[in-house]
Amino acid sequence: MISRENDLPYDRKSLSKRLFNDDNSHSFTLRSRDFLEKRLGVHLLLGHSVRNVRPEEKRIFVEYKQKNGGGGEPTLVRALEYEELVLALGATSKRLQGVQGADYLEGITHLRTLNDAQQLSIELNESAKNVAIIGSGFLGFEISSLIYPIARSVSIYGKASTPLTLLGSEVGNEIRKFIREQGVIIRQDSVLRSMGGFDRVEDLKFRDGLTAIADTVIVAIGIMPSTSILMGSGIRTNAEGYILVDEAMRTNIPNIYACGDCVNFPISFNSGQVGERRINLPHWQVAQYQGIKRNWERGKGRSISIKIFF
């Protein structure tokens, strides 16, 4: 198991739900190192980043920092051979594009990894008074409901006319009403133009002329697949970079599979016919099911279909 993060596999979905009230990072760990290595026989390569994939050689190249106990840690590259390869590359947070100040001001954060959450927890407990959340989706609303008791003000700014567009306007508006009752300010049809401040963010300016005060900005505008390492590998992706897989989580290259937030996969609706539509659904239960599905079909030689549950 190769991971660019230094942490053992952890419960990512809980980061936006309870970290600000829990400074014990071990409470998020799914399994101990002993369980993974001794009981399951998993060889862990943490802190290793995949540099590229070469299917024609059945090798991947990874880079890592050499621990030498000194000040400098040189980056090394090593090649690993495989018989079967499962790409569970996940996704990264989208960054603000074309927004003045977003690249250099302090106080602008994201929430995707355990390290992100730990830094955000420190930020909220030590510095934040007026918090602005850019993005009115699931993550933005979860964060707002968690931090409003410890911040002076919490404001959510969304580009769409209604929040939580995936759930439809009726449900989105009801949730917006509930969050507003907690004291959170919610503004829709708000497109961020620039951020101002000397070293740290101090204010936000929007295209409609609105100006808002903020000393901490949490960007929650969606994710993008972490598939740039596949460039030149021959593994097929769609225009957005998601890996194209079939109903057995197979890519177009033999012995290479993919699952989780990085894939575009076929689903079935009421008729039960697989392949009616292809989607990407970044949800932990879908990712978990796809991993089970891949192993099931590998062992049983038959297919089970993925159905949408919400």
Please state the overall shape, judged from the principal axes of the Cα atoms: globular
The number of E-state strands comes to 20
The appropriate CATH architecture of the largest domain is 3-Layer(bba) Sandwich
Structural class: alpha/beta
For the largest beta-sheet, the strand count, sense and barrel status come to: 5 strands, parallel
Kindly report the name of the CATH homologous superfamily of the largest domain. FAD/NAD(P)-binding domain
Q: Give the helix proportion (percent range).
A: 10-25%
Number of domains: 2
Note poorly predicted spans. none
Mean pLDDT rating = 86
According to CATH, what is the class of the largest domain?
Alpha Beta
Per DSSP, the total helix count is 6
Radius of gyration, in Å, reads 21 Å
Question: H/E element string?
Answer: EHHEEEEEEEHEHEHEEEEEEEEEEH
What's the end-to-end separation, in Å?
31 Å
- What CATH calls the topology of the largest domain is FAD/NAD(P)-binding domain
Proportion of β residues?
A: 25-35%
Identify the notable features of this structure and list them briefly.
3-stranded antiparallel β-sheet, 5-stranded parallel β-sheet, FAD/NAD(P)-binding domain, 20 strands, globular, alpha/beta
Any overview of this molecule?
It is a single chain. This protein is an alpha/beta fold and 310 residues long. It folds into 2 domains: 12-92 and 224-297, FAD/NAD(P)-binding domain (3-Layer(bba) Sandwich), CATH 3.50.50.60; 95-221, FAD/NAD(P)-binding domain (3-Layer(bba) Sandwich), CATH 3.50.50.60. 21% of the residues lie in helices and 25% in strands. The protein contains 6 helices and 20 strands. The chain has helices at 15-18, 33-39, 114-126, 138-147, 169-181, 284-300; strands at residues 2-3, 45-46, 48-54, 59-65, 75-81, 85-87, 91-93, 108-109, 130-134, 153-157, 185-187, 192-196, 203-206, 211-213, 216-219, 223-225, 243-244, 256-258, 263-267, 277-279. The strands form 7 sheets. The chain has a 5-stranded parallel beta sheet. A 3-stranded antiparallel beta sheet has the order 3-4-5, with no helix packed on it. Strand 12 and strand 13 (203-206) form a beta hairpin. Residues 1-291 form the FAD/NAD(P)-binding domain. This is FAD/NAD(P)-binding domain-containing protein. Its cofactor is FAD. It holds the Pfam family Pyr_redox_2. InterPro entries: FAD-oxidoreductase/Apoptosis, FAD/NAD-bd_sf, FAD/NAD-binding_dom.
